[in-house]
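WARN retry 2 of 3 for item q-0093 after timeout on previous attempt; input resubmitted unchanged.
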Amino acid sequence: MLFNQRLVTVPFSSKALDRRNHELSVLLELSNFLSTCTDLETLLHGGLEMVRRQFGLKAGRIYLGEPEEGFLYLAAHQGLEPDGLETLELEGTFSGKAAATRSFLAMRVEDIEDKQRSALLTRKGFVMVICLPLITRDRVLGVMNLNAPEMIHLEMATVDLGMVMCNLIATSAESVIQAQELMEKADMLEEQKKAVQFFAYTACHDMKSPAAGVHGLARLLLARSGDRMNPKDREVCRQIEKASARIENLAGEINGYIWAKESALDREEVELGEVLAEIAAEQAGRLEKAGVVFETPPEPVWILADRLALGRALDNLVDNALKYGGPELSRIRVSCQDKDSQWVLCVEDDGVGIPDELAKKVFTLFKRAATSQGTEGTGLGLAIVQEIARRHGGRAWLEPGQGSGASFCLSLAKAP
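OK item q-0093 returned
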C-alpha cells in the first residue's frame, strides 16, 4: 500500500515502533544504551537487565574470559547470591557446550550433568537454566546464564531476539575492554616516558658535572705549569680541555632538547623586539668580533608564545648562523610575517649557505652539514628549534634555493 503513494512519510516514534515491531524497538533501546557505555560494569549490568526483561526472568549472570583457558569468571549478576558461582568451567558443562557450539541452550536444573552445580542451583531455588553465548566478530567472549524458579514457555522470536541482544552486548563489551586496555597501555607508556626523561636528565647532569670538573682541572694545570710542561704534554692538556668542553656542551644540549620536547609551555603575549634585544646583548661579543650586523624588525610585534622557548629557538638560529656562516658572513637578519593563523619568523644570513640536498636533513638529531666540519657543535640546535615550533603548533624549515646564505624559518600558531 505504501509503495502506491507518491510520497511516503513515516515520522519516527519509539512508542509507535514498539507497537508495530516490538523486537526492533527492543534492539533500538539496547543499541542506544550500549552507545553511551564506557564502563564495562555498567554495560554488562544494563545489558543483562534488558535480556532478563525479554525472557521475563529475575535472575541472571554474565561470565567473561578466554574459552581457550577452560574457564570463565563472573562479571555481572542480578537476582541471586553469587556464592559458589564465581567461576564457570567449560569442559563437559552445560555452559561450555553453549560456548563451543555457539548455540542457545535451555534445560532443567535437575538434568545438568554437573551434579554439584545442579544441587547448588536447586538450593538457590531455580528449576530452569538458559545459556546464551556472547559472540562478537566470530569470537565467543563469554556466556549469559538466565535462571528461572519454574519452567517457562519459549518462543522462537524471543530466543532469536535474545541471541541478537547478546551479540550486541558482546560487541560493545569487547570495544570497551579494548579501550580500557589501550588506556592502560597509554598510562604505562606515559610512566615509561617519564622514567626515561628522568633518566636522561639525571644522566646528562651527572655527565656534565665531571666533564666540567675535568675541563677546569685541565685549564688549571695548563695555567700552573707555565713553561715547565713540554709542548707535547701541553697539547694533550688542550685536547683534554676541548674534549671535556664538548661533553659538557653535549650534555647541556641534550637537556635542552628534552626540555623543548617535554616541558609544559607557558604561553603569554611576548614582544619580539624585546626577545631579540636580549639575544643581541648575549651575542654582542661574537657579533662584534665577526663584524656581523644584526638586523631586527623595526616595528613592535606581539606574539603568543612561551617566552623562554621562543628565545631559545631564535638564539639557536642566530648561534647557528654565527658558527657556520663562514668568513664571508656580514649580516644576520630576523624578520616576522603575519600569515593568517600563524606568525612566520625567519633568520637569514649571507654566509656560505647549505646545499639543497641537506635542506630536509638539517633538523635531524645530530645531523651536521659538511660545511660545519671543524666547527664546535652538537647537532642538536636545529632539532631543538623544530621541537619548539612543533609545540607551538607550527614547524621549522630551511628555505630552498637561496644560493649563498641560509634562511631558517619557524612558524607559530597564533592561537593555542
